[in-house]
Amino acid sequence: MNITHTRDARRRWRGASPGVRRWLIVLMLALGVLLTLNAPAAHAAPTLTASENPVFIPYSKDTEDITLAWTVEPWQLLATLTVTESGTPAPVIDKTVGPTPPPGGEPLTVTYGKTYTAELKDVITQQPLVAPLIITTDRIDIKIDMGCLVQCITEPKVEPHGGWAKFTINTTETASMTLEASKTKPNANGTWNNPKDVAASNATILPTQNWTAPLPNLDSNTTYYYVVRAHDTNGNEQIKTGSFKTLTRRVEVTFAEIQMIDDSDDLGDCDCFFWFNAGDETPKPWGDFQHQKSIASGTTVHPNVTFTIDNAPSEILIRALGYDDDSAFGSLCSAGTGYLPYTGNATWITTSGMAEDCQQLTGDQVTVSVSHQGQPTAPDAVDEQFTEQFTISAGLGPLVYKVHGSYKVTYA
Ligand SMILES: [Ca+2]
Ligand SMILES: [Ca+2]
To answer: How far is Cα of residue 212 from the mean position of the Cα atoms in its chain?
Structure first.
């Protein structure tokens, strides 16, 4: 009966048109897929796992012991476990194993820097039962319980200002810390050959894990190299080095007002002109021999001459030099234009008296500090960006006057 049926079936198969045959094949494949999809729902898929991956290996060691574990299909009684190590031709494990790993797992020693490929295969067909397991290694970046023997300082955060910098330093271990900065690069061990090279420093009062430390009294627009040194409670030391640049100071000076006290002319008002100067900037005139300002004693005038000093030092000089033309007919003045233009010369500014028989002059200067900050422990207590007034008192005569103005300090 069966034979007859089979023959009949074969005959029918051969007799079927190619289109019908193709359709039947598609139907059978579809059924197969459906059965395959349904089958694993009954139990978990095979697995191959490592107790740790990536394997973190402390700096003090080269190798670490881990274990492998697996699960297989219920009918799989034996399997082949192979583990290969990068750079090593022969497998480090190649053995037949049971459906469950030994108690505690299959031991595997991994070496730092190597990559391992673990495979579980059918013991007879050698077909893989699971996807290969790639095991990698890594160093422990953050200290767990080794204190400052390994890295305990995380990357310091630096906020540079114009005349100081704020450091925020966190550690993974409670530590006493010092912070030093210099315009000179430190040695590899975080020290300087000349202790005088250390421009600013700070230290923790009590051991901490979170330290906010200002570095006061720095020069603006300057690169500093810093060293953070941490000592944990076990005496381990670690250093962290880096660099930062302070902001650039800009000063805007305004010569706002001249207060004429004595114009030096008995008959009428002075025939004046002025030179102004701030820092190392080129002096600027207000009026000249041909364009004289008539200014009476007891009055004020407003030149509003301004200077902008980019990258200013911590102190600047602000200067004024006033002239009064007293030439009479027949006086000899340089080329008829009076005294030579002021060049910014420091000694010249404080002269007073008569120049070339035709001009009376008086000058003076004032030094202003453009670097403001609070006490070393709290430099941010005083705003380093500010505007202040200045007064130059030119009192030597024969011209007697005061110049009032302002200077504005900003950082960028
Ligand atoms: Ca005069
Ligand atoms: Ca005059």
So the answer is: 16
Ligand sitting nearest the alpha carbon of 292: 2
**Mean pLDDT per 10-residue segment, the chain (412 residues):** 44 53 54 48 80 87 93 90 93 94 94 94 93 90 61 88 96 91 94 93 91 95 95 88 96 98 90 93 90 95 98 95 78 54 66 66 93 95 98 91 98 97
Task: Using only the alpha carbons of the chain, give its radius of gyration.
Answer: 44
How many angstroms does the Cα of residue 297 sit away from the middle of ligand 2? 12
Centroid of ligand 2 to alpha carbon of 327 (angstroms): 7
Tell me the pTM. Answer: 0.61
CATH topology of domain 147-245: Immunoglobulin-like (2.60.40)
> Ligand 2 centroid vs 269 CA: distance in angstroms?
7
Question: And the tokens for 85?
Answer: 């190590």
Establish whether the linkage from the previous residue to 376 is cis, with ω within 30° of 0: no
Q: What is the CATH number of domain 47-139?
A: 2.60.40
